[in-house]
Amino acid sequence: MENQKRRSETAPDASAKANDDDEWVSTDDAIEGALGLDDDPSKLNSDNWFEPTAPLMEASTYHSETTQLQQDTEEVVIESYNEHPSMEFLYERHVQYVSLCLTRPMPSAYTMLDANHSWMVYWLVNSFHVIKHRDSELSKELAPDDDVIANATEAWINDDGKGGIGGGVGQIGHMASTYAGVLSLVLTRRFDILERIRTGLYEWVMSLKNPNGSFKMHHNGEADTRSTYCALVVATLLNIVTDEFLVGVEAWLDQCQTFEGGFAGVPGTEAHGGYTYCALASYFLLHKEPTFKGLDVPNLTRWLVSRQFQLEGGLSGRTNKLVDACYSFWVGAAIPLIEIATKTEQLFNRYALKSYLLRVAQNSRGGFKDKPGKSVDFYHTNYSLMGLSMCEYLTKLKTDDANELMAFRFHHEPLADDVHTEATNPVFGLPEVFVSDCRGHFQQLDGH
Ligand code: FPP
Ligand code: ZN
């Protein structure tokens, strides 16, 4: 059998050298090593074992900046795996990190995020609630102050919703900041504010609708799958979806699926995990049953599962790009969705993704980062925690209540006794309990 070269080799213990560039092994050996069969065949069926192993794909002889970056990343990831053998979840550190970020003045580097106040608040408050709180004293002491959160969010609302929600005080309404602002009001259960602004928000969202079924992000702004998803989330949560709102929406989304299988932001461009999430989640906001007429589900499935790296365990956002913890949600939330769409279980290696999150992306002082060498931040913390939740539960569609949209019909089965996260709704990006409270509130108010 032809020999192949291993790019890098797993070190079974922390002292071993990570990079064996010159080692040549037979294909059989490589496969056995990769699956861990040389150590213990029972590991193959184990759901709590992950060891970074060399990719089975033969390393390309073509070298470029892209292949170099991939190789460098594999090396730092292996280093991190070796330095952090434990799967411990640093509960207290994360709660303290989130609380400090919400209450302390921000470092000057954050001035560039001035148009993202509503995002930052959502990322942090949501992070707090996605964490499963075992220490009730600490969680009570450091819980975000709902009044402060809701008052801040209220200050970003323009003209009682008729101008959308901005990213800060005095800023124009933007579909993404409106989405984040609405989610923060759901997280603080301020349904009174949402009731007050929902008619105005409906008018504003409809003023951004294009004749082709897409929505603009803001007046004179771009339209892509993000804005469709944000508009659908806001309208669905507030129970203001109309036939007029829905005209052309799905047909436009269908056009964004690319030859690769994933979705681009707009028709004819590159498939990307973020845009794919927005599109796939949107179908769950449009339908009651997992039938997707205009969608190539097998091609989407193949593209999604190809996002998981064998060695890193984590996910990338597009072909030939690097692992990044935030895709644990953008692509990771597609795991339950595509499992529902294909009526298949465990299409991804959840334990491998969880290993990347806890042993590579988790910061020892709290919070999560994209990958080794990057700094911890609010955004990666929120999407890593939600990604962790995708790994900790199996999510299925409830069979009762068939008149309800799929996005409101998830039920979640924990895969272990010691989960660190709350069951999270993969379509709304919120712990499930907040989604059902909001749905219950507006259903009761409107009688449907
Ligand atoms: C990086 O692209 C882009 C991201 C990390 C964000 C992608 C997420 C979205 C488009 C979804 C947004 C969702 C809402 C609700 C507004 P890159 O080119 O820097 O990174 P890459 O190299 O990993 O592709
Ligand atoms: Zn990222």
TrEMBL record:
Please list the GO terms describing molecular function.
Answer: protein farnesyltransferase activity; zinc ion binding
* One of the GO BP terms on file: prenylation
What does the entry comment about cofactor binding?
Binds 1 zinc ion per subunit.
Organism of this sequence = Diutina rugosa
- Gene Ontology cellular component? protein farnesyltransferase complex
Per the UniProt entry, the Enzyme Commission number(s) are 2.5.1.58
Family stated for the protein in its record: Belongs to the protein prenyltransferase subunit beta family.
Q: Gene3D superfamilies in the record, alphabetically?
A: 1.50.10.20
Listed name of the protein: Protein farnesyltransferase subunit beta
Q: Where is the composition biased (Basic and acidic residues)?
A: 1-10
Going by the record, the broad EC class of this enzyme is transferase
Q: What does this protein do?
A: Catalyzes the transfer of a farnesyl moiety from farnesyl diphosphate to a cysteine at the fourth position from the C-terminus of several proteins. The beta subunit is responsible for peptide-binding.
Please note every region of biased composition (Acidic residues).
20-31
Name the cofactor(s): Zn(2+)
Give the signal peptide as a residue range, or say none if absent: none
Start and end residues of each Prenyltransferase alpha-alpha toroid domain: 90-399
Quaternary structure annotation from Swiss-Prot or TrEMBL = Heterodimer of an alpha and a beta subunit.
Q: Which reaction does it catalyse?
A: L-cysteinyl-[protein] + (2E,6E)-farnesyl diphosphate = S-(2E,6E)-farnesyl-L-cysteinyl-[protein] + diphosphate
Pfam (any one): Prenyltrans
What keywords tag this UniProt record? Answer: Metal-binding, Prenyltransferase, Repeat, Transferase, Zinc
Q: Where is this region: Disordered?
A: 1-44
